[in-house]
Every structure is written in structure tokens, then in C-alpha cells.
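User: Fold this; C-alpha cells only.

Assistant: Input:
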Amino acid sequence: MNNLSKNILWLGIAILGASAVGGIALNRGEHINALWFITAALCIYTLAYRFYAAWIATTVLMVDETRATPAERLDNGRDFVPTNKWVVFGHHFAAIAGPGPLVGPTLAAQFGYLPGTLWILFGAVLGGCVQDMIILFISTRRDARSLGQMARDEIGRIGGTAALIGTFTIMIILIAVLGLVVVNAMKHSPWATFTVSATIPIAMFVGIYMRYLRPGQVLEASILGVFLLLFSVAAGGWVDTNESLRGWFDHDSLPLAWAVMAYGFAAAIFPVWLLLAPRDYLSTYMKLGTITLLAVAIILLRPDVKMPAVTQFIDGTGPIFGGKLFPFVFITIACGAISGFHSLIASGTTPKLLTNERDIVMIGYGGMLLESFVAIMAMVAATVLDPGVFFAINSSAGIVGAEATDAVAKISSWGYPVTVEQMQTLARQMGETTLFARTGGAPSLAVGMASIFGSAFGESLLALWYHFAIMFEAIFILTTLDAGTRVGRFMLQDMLGNIWPKMGETSWMPSVIFTSAVVVMGWGYFLYIGVIDPNGGVNILWPLFGIANQMLAAIALSVATGILVKSKKLSYAWITAVPLLWLVIITTTAAWQKLFSEDIRIGFLAGANDLTSKLAMGTLPAEKIAAAPKLIFNLHLDAGIIIFLVSMLWLIVFDMLRMCFKQVTGKPVLLLTDTPYVMTQLLDERVGR
């Protein structure tokens, strides 16, 4: 009877999930309730975690909880530190959950709610979660080596070297984008700047508290840290209204960029227990608390999703960004479905903290499921807005017009009515002077979240909710930047260690300081370019972000597929090979279009040639003439980076296929580099489990 009850329960969850997905997919012409999105997500995630993730862990990977992890065997108190599983989960989730699950779904809503929602749900359970879990597993079995180093050790010198260089280049680009987004969020916002800054000393205090003052008292330290974090949020509002203190935290982009670089350097060289792990762990509480509160508000309110399932902009004429539904919805939404950046965290900081292999499913697969749920919440928050309001906030002045009357007329002509008075009232409610042309996704997401919170918990606090959401997004992103910088340091140490072994020692301070400085200077250069760019920097870096991120995921899945084949698990290699094939198709297609499309909103070269021609003929407006040479250079730089990255990707894929062919046909290949079995000596009590 017990088994029968369980089977009936799981069958009921499956039927409910299928009904919810069917309702979302088949609904046309009427508003659909947002509760269906939460229902579909929770049912699909529960089934995937219970059955698919468990099957991969036990049958394919054969996770062994008696095996000592690198954190235990190589414990050095700095990078390799056996850490409580909940702290590791918090650090891992905070590190992987950057702007992607928030901004990506918001921007992709220009295609309608349906395409992005389906990609988030099924892309995560079949691709993103699988990538994260398998990369975490194989890195743990190989002394927590980086993704690029594992490619070199397992696939071959050619593909491995390409992977080392390609992943490091992509990492630099990704961190620069994260830095630019967080700088823009804090620019001239004392409230946000104070709160984000306060999380640093709070995290250091919690790290010292857990390691020296009250070792093992994770719950106690967590309560104290969360209290201080919430106090800093409230104090930020007080600082914002205090004229004597406001100036200390009111800064333009460039000083904030230098401060972010300094923070990234510190996070890369300080012991992981002092700053990185506790800060990310505490930030996770804010992330999970906010998303849980948003889900509760949606359940209470049951708001209707007002955006159509599919809009006319699937043809590539969208006002937010150019490009057709395929492939750009899969590029725009990265972290909520599958993200290559996660593979760098899963082969960077996380395996150096993991105490037991049995936690790989929870941290790897479960952490990505949680991020996917964040993406679903972001999609709902964006699409419960009136479509006219959504497009008014996210459409640039160059598309809809600089004047409010021109903008509303243009947007209304698309079939999404909106008025100047409506936008003015909304801006006043949010405590802003205007919400027109607030591009980038973050402001419209904050408006959507504030609207839901306000309706559920009090509309008189809309301005508070809006600015809280802006800060929430900034903190969300900064926790990915610090972990990314540290992982970049590990990657560079791996590369230099192939030349001079001493540089590969992660605990040797000269190597730590040198490689950290190089990494920060690398992404700091692109951040600096973005900050001083006359168009705000997003036009330089954001087009590269999605393509580079998905290319990195393809590299990670190539490494995972190659190792599965070498491990004599060819019959299971499809679990990584299928998402790999999909990513190779969409990234190559997107790269081709970004290079050679004749649409100046899509093609880098077309945009550069158009500007060059207008500059030569003297038809550019006077205010754009000075910026034109910079924009032309940036577009050519984007094109060059895209060519380099797609070349690296195909080189890695072909080298992996060559190695797999040799393995299947019985020819010699590089030996597996997983470490010999050592039984764990750690007791659960010692790590506060």
C-alpha cells in the first residue's frame, strides 16, 4: 500500500504538471493566471529532481559518499576547506545566480511569455541542471581542477588548450558584463551602494564568527547575519534621506567601477571562509527570501499575465533587441535554462568546499533548479505588467522616439496601448522622475516585482518595494562577480601551471596575487570601456554575453561527453550529447547572424559599415560624430571576439569527437585522470552537518 500511495502521488504530480504546461502552451486570446506558471515549474522540478537527477547520480555517475573529497584531502584553510553543505549550497547558488535569471527572461518577454517559459522549464531540467551536476562531479573526482584544465587532461592538447584559452576569454567577458550591470544599478543610488557595501563587512564578521568565535554554529551565525543584512537594507533608506551621509555613497559610474575592481581583487585573494563563502551564503537568504515572498504574493493575488503568449516580434523586429525568435530567445535567456558560467563555478570554488559526494545532486542539480525557478518568477513579474508599459520601459528612445508623446504613439500603434499619464503616474508611485526608455530589463523587472508586492502587502510602499527590488538585483549580480573572479584566478593558475608548476599551486601567495591582479585587469579593462562608452556600455558587452555564455556551456558539455565516453559509458553519453548538439546549433547560428546579418541592429559588421558610411558622408548628427569612431571600433571588436570564440568551440568539439572515435574503435587515448579512491575520515559532527 505504501508503494501504491507513492505511485499515485507521483502520478498526480505528473498529471498536474502536464495540465499546467498544457494550459500555458495552448492558451490563446485570453489572459492566463500566473499561478499556472508556478504550478508547472514546481511539478516539473520535483519530478526531474526525484527521478532524472537521482538516476544520473546513482546509475551514470555512481556517486560514492564514502569517498574523500578534495576539500578533505587537500584542506589548506584558504581555498580547500570542508564546509557545511548548506553553506556550500548557499555559496554555489549565490555564485551561479547572476543577472541571467532576472534580466534574460525580462528581455525575452518581447517574444511573448510562451517561448521563454518553455525554454526555462525544459532547458533547465534536461540541460542546465545536468551540466552543473556532472561538471561538479567530474571536477570533484579530479582534485577540483578547472574546466579548461580537465579538457586539456582528458580530451587532448589541441582541444584542451583551446578550451583553456576560450573559457578564460569568455570568463573575462562575462565578469565585465556583470560588473557593468551592478555599476549601473548603484550609479547615483546611495541606498543601493550603502546596502551592497555593507554586505562585505557583515560577511567577514560572519566568517570569523563561524570559524573562530562559535565554530560549527551555522544556524546561530545565519540568524545573526540575516538580521544584520536586513538592518543594512533599512539603514540604506535612512542614508538615502540623510543629506550629511548621502554624499558618501552617491557616486558616478567610474568611481564605482574602480571600487568593484578592488572588491573583485580582494574576493580573489582572501581566504574563502573569510569573505566569499559567507557573503554569498548570506546573499542567498536575500535572494531566496525575496523570490519566496514573490511566489507567496503571486499565490495570494493570482494575477493575470497580460503579455500575449506570442507577439508579432518573433519575426526579428522587436523594439528591445533585434533578432528572430530562433536563435535569440535561447541566447537571451541563458542562466535560467543553461549557463556555461555555472560550469566554471562547479569546477572552481564549489568542489573545493564540498565535504561529501552525496551532496552533489542537491548542490549541482538542485541549485540550478532553484535558479530556473527565479527565472520563472522574473518572467511572471515582467509579463503581469500591461504590455504597453513593458515596452515603454524597455524600448530605447532611438526606436520609439525621445519624446513621451512619440513613444506612446509608436507603442500603441503596435497594438499595446499606453498613455503618457499612465507612465507618469507609475513613475511617481515608484519614486522616479520617468520610466521611459529605462532599458536593460532591470527597471521593468523591479516595477513588476514592486507592483506584485504592493498589491499583496500595501500599495503605499510601492517606492520602497521598487528600490528594494533594484538593490536585490544588484546584490544578486555582485555575488556572481566575486566568485567569477576567484574562478578566473584558478583558471589562470591552471594555465600557468602547465609552464611553471609552482604557479599552479593555488595556495602560493605570489601566484595568488599575480593571477588575481591579471584577471581583474582583464575584466576591468572591458568594464572601463563599458563605463566610458557614450551609449552606456551595454551595446558593447551585452551582445557578447549570451552567445559567449552558451558557447561556454557547449564547451563544458563537450568535456562531460568525452569523459563519459572514456569512462566506458557510451550508452549514457546522450544525456550530455543531446543538449551539446542543441547548443552548438543555436550558438553557431547566432554567431553567424551577429557577424553577417545586413540588419544594422543585429550584424556587428553591418552596424560598423553603416556608421562608417554616415560618418564619411557627414549625415550623422553633430552629437554622435565624436562617439562614432569608438562605436565603430567596438563593433569590430565584438565581431573579432565572436569569430575567435566560435572557432575555439568548433575546435574543441571536433577534438572531443576525434577522441571519442578513437575510444570506441579501441585506439589509445589519454588515460582518465580521476584520483584514486581514499576513504573519508570526516565525521558528520565535525563539519556541522
